[in-house]
Amino acid sequence: MIGKYLTIAKNGLWTSNTTLVQMLGLCPTLAVTNSAVNALGMGLATTAVLTVSNTLISAVRKTLRPEIRIAVFVLILAGLVTSLELVMEAFVPDIYTALGIFIPLIVTNCIIIGRAESFASRHPVGESFTDGLFTGIGFSIVLFIIGSIREIIGTGHWLAGFEQLIGEAGKSLETVIFSSDAGVLIAILPPGAFITLGFLVALHNVIESKQKYGKKVITEAGGHGCC
C-alpha cells in the first residue's frame, strides 16, 4: 500500500512531471515565471485547486453518468477557482493582481482536467488526493526553479517581493546577487522562459537516460554472474 503511494508521489514529482515530461500547463509556466514569487504563487494556487478537485471528483466518480462527467468536472473546478480568487484577493492582493488572468484560467488548465479524467475519475480518494498533491508540488517546483533562474539572471535579485506572499517577514528573504544594471534583460522576457524551460527539460532527460542506462548495465552484469 505504501509503495503505491510512493510511486504516485514519484510520478508527480519526477517521472511523469507535468511540465518536464508531459509538457502541460505551458501557458502559466512561460507567462508568470519572470520572478520567483510570481512562479511560486501560481504553483501553490494550482496545487490547491488540483488537490481538492482530484479529491472531490474521486469521491463522486461512481455517481456520475459518463456523458456528463466533463461538465461536472468543469463545474467543480469553476467553484474551486472562484473561491480561490476571493481568498487570494482578500489575503494576497498583490500576487492576485500580478498573476491576473492566469488565476481564473486555472479552470481550463490541461493539467487539472487531465488528472481529473485520467486519474481521479478512476481511483479511490486517498490515491487521488496524493496524485493531486504531488502533481501540484512537482508543477510548483518547476515553476519556482524557472522563476528563480530568470529573476537572478535578469535582475540580479532573488525572492524580491516575497512579502507579497508571506507578509513582512518576506522582505528579509530578498537576496541581491549582483547589480540589476548587469542583468540580462532577455531572461525576464518571453524568450528567456522558453530557453530556461528547454534547459530544464534537457537536464531531466539526461538524468533519466543515465538512470535507465545504469539499471541496464547492472541488470546485464547480474545476468552474467558465475555459477
The separation of the N and C termini measures 36 Å
Radius of gyration: 20 Å
What is the overall shape?
Answer: globular
Report the biggest beta sheet as strand number plus sense, adding barrel if it closes.
Answer: 2 strands, antiparallel
Query: Which strand-content bin applies to the residues?
Result: under 5%
Strand order of the largest sheet: 1-2
By DSSP (H or I, 4+ residues per run), the number of helices equals 9
Q: How many beta strands in the DSSP annotation?
A: 2
SS-derived structural category:
mainly alpha
Order of helices and strands: HHHHHHHEHEH
Portion in helices: 55-70%
Query: How many domains, as an integer?
Result: 1
- Averaged pLDDT, please? 92
Uncertain segments of ≥5 residues (pLDDT<50)?
none
